[in-house]
């Protein structure tokens, strides 16, 4: 036998022996750690590589190599995402053997007490089961015990994982960001407070009045204090999808939590009978249940866009800027809408100095006289000459069409890679065997998604123009102030979310899960009791509540992926499914079917 073949067999034999002798939790730990490592390092590596390829800035080869090495080494940190994901999944498998006897004993005792109480408060006659029924009962109880064991173990390991993440210096809890303070250097695109108009007047803006500050809910925000909050809320929403039940009165965790809600609601929907509801309202109930993803997306977008217009401090600043870029909107016009709602921009009244500066800036940018925007001299702002110019002048209808086209091509650059990368990575053979149909399918999917987002953008502009421009033309007696002070924006926020109907059902679900955490992010600061926003006690309560939601949500997602993968949806099902592949059940447990 040639030496290379013999060496290969030795290596394979060694690997086989290690896999048989290693702890069952080793493989899940390594797979989850690899996924977490990739999630932490890939964006940084991609940014560095794209920077070199696109030549945005010239760097020496040595510097690029150092940056790549730094990113790759940072991912190996024992407090990084790789270690945390490995602990969450591998620890869940490791803890099953210790928790299974305890969970089985507690569950069976509780089940017996419940059955006895149901049969007559402990005095009812004993029900005799046939051998088949007894076997089915044992099998059902064993399934429940295994699922509860995995959930308890995964919850504990996930708590350790989030503690590991939050112990890292990079995840240190930060004070409330500057966007919560009336600082004249703030960008008025992302804060409701007074600011300086760049390029027009170097003087500081006027101090914010108490009414404005109170109206904006100026509080120390727990939303931005925890760097792991995005991950937590994502898992919470995902885990809760298999219980159509009232949500927690307070959502204190963002991205991870989305996964848990998703899983629980799917399970509740499956067992609720809504799939074949009968009676007078049966068809309506079934229809609404089948469109739950659309309704979640619509509600989320309504809240997100309202906050973007009037309460941007409740959204991540990068998210607000992304919306502003896609909308191609002059941020000074956006600020003027906020002033109109606050009662600082009122037709027929002299504005304060800050409002006057912004009005003058808008007029100058469009080549108009300052009086054409100053509310003291006008009764209506002409959107044709002062708002539509960011994409070319024209009527309100023409503007909506142009904005749709511009947003469509902007989004096409985003969605082409989104729809092309999965076939390239996971279905490359089909792409090679059927290149024409595969490319056409990618183009159609990307065009459909781009049309959805373009309709989202243009529907807001069309709604605002309809309310503030077209309605007064049809009904001249309508007062202009309330239309500019919130009604026009309210219709735009109400209408934009329905654009998701352009997408297919699977994509609607993904979009709903994408937007729901951001909508929760936008309500946390307003619905949280004062005890969670004041002093060290509030910080401690907030921190541990977030950790508890993170742990239970992650436990729900992991347990569902192991025992009921049909309840988990989207990319999470594939990612977590890889980590828990070949999950061996606890000693003595029956296989889950």
UniProtKB/TrEMBL annotation:
Domain of life of the native organism: Eukaryota
Q: What is this protein called?
A: SPOSA6832_00408-mRNA-1:cds
Task: Give the InterPro entries listed for this entry.
Answer: Tmem135
**Record's PANTHER family?**
TRANSMEMBRANE PROTEIN 135, TRANSMEMBRANE PROTEIN 135-RELATED
């Amino acid at each position: 036998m040639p030496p290379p073949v013999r060496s290969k067999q030795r290596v394979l034999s060694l690997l086989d022996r290690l896999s048989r002798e290693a702890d069952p939790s080793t493989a899940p730990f390594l797979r989850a750690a690899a996924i977490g490592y990739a999630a932490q390092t890939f964006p940084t590596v991609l940014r560095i590589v794209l920077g070199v390829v696109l030549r945005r800035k010239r760097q020496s080869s040595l510097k690029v190599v150092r940056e790549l090495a730094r990113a790759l080494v940072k991912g190996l940190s024992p407090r990084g995402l790789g270690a945390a994901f490995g602990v969450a999944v591998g620890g869940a498998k490791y803890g099953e053997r210790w928790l299974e006897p305890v969970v089985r004993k507690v569950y069976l005792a509780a089940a017996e007490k419940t059955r006895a109480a149901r049969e007559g408060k402990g005095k009812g006659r004993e029900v005799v089961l046939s051998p088949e029924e007894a076997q089915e009962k044992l099998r059902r109880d064993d399934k429940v015990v295994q699922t509860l064991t995995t959930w308890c173990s995964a919850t504990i390991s996930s708590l350790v994982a989030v503690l590991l993440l939050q112990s890292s210096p990079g995840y240190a809890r930060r004070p409330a960001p500057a966007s919560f303070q009336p600082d004249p250097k703030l960008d008025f695109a992302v804060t409701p407070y007074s600011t300086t108009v760049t390029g027009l007047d170097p003087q500081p803006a006027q101090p914010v009045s108490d009414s404005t500050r109170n109206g904006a809910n100026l509080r120390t925000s727990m939303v931005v204090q925890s760097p792991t909050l995005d991950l937590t809320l994502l898992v919470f929403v995902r885990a809760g999808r298999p219980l159509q039940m009232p949500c927690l009165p307070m959502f204190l965790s963002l991205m991870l939590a989305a996964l848990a809600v998703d899983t629980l609601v799917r399970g509740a929907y499956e067992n609720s009978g809504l799939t074949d509801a009968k009676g007078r309202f049966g068809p309506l109930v079934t229809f609404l249940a089948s469109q739950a993803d659309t309704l979640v997306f619509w509600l989320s977008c309504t809240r997100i866009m309202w906050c973007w217009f009037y309460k941007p401090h409740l959204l991540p600043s990068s998210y607000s800027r992304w919306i502003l870029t896609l909308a191609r909107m002059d941020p000074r016009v956006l600020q003027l809408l906020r002033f109109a709602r606050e009662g600082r921009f009122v037709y027929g009244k002299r504005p304060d100095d800050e409002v006057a500066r912004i009005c003058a800036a808008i007029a100058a940018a469009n080549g108009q006289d300052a009086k054409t925007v100053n509310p003291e001299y006008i009764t209506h702002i002409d959107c044709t000459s002062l708002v539509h110019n960011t994409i070319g002048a024209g009527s309100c209808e023409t503007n909506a069409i142009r904005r749709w086209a511009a947003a469509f091509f902007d989004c096409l650059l985003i969605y082409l890679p989104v729809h092309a990368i999965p076939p390239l990575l996971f279905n490359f053979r089909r792409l090679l065997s059927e290149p024409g149909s595969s490319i056409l399918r990618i183009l159609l999917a990307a065009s459909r998604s781009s049309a959805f987002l373009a309709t989202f953008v243009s529907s807001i502009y069309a709604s605002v123009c309809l309310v503030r421009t077209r309605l007064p033309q049809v009904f001249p007696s309508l007062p202009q102030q309330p239309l500019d002070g919130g009604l026009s924006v309210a219709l735009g926020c109400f209408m934009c979310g329905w654009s998701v109907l352009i997408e297919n059902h699977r994509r609607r679900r993904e979009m709903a899960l994408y937007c729901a955490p951001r909508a929760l992010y936008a309500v946390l600061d307003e619905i949280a009791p004062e005890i969670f926003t004041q002093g060290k006690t509030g910080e401690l309560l907030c921190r541990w509540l977030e950790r508890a939601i993170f742990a239970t949500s992650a436990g729900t997602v992991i347990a569902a992926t192991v025992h009921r993968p049909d309840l988990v949806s989207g990319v999470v099902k594939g990612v977590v499914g890889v980590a828990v592949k070949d999950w061996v059940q606890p000693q003595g447990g029956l296989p889950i079917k």
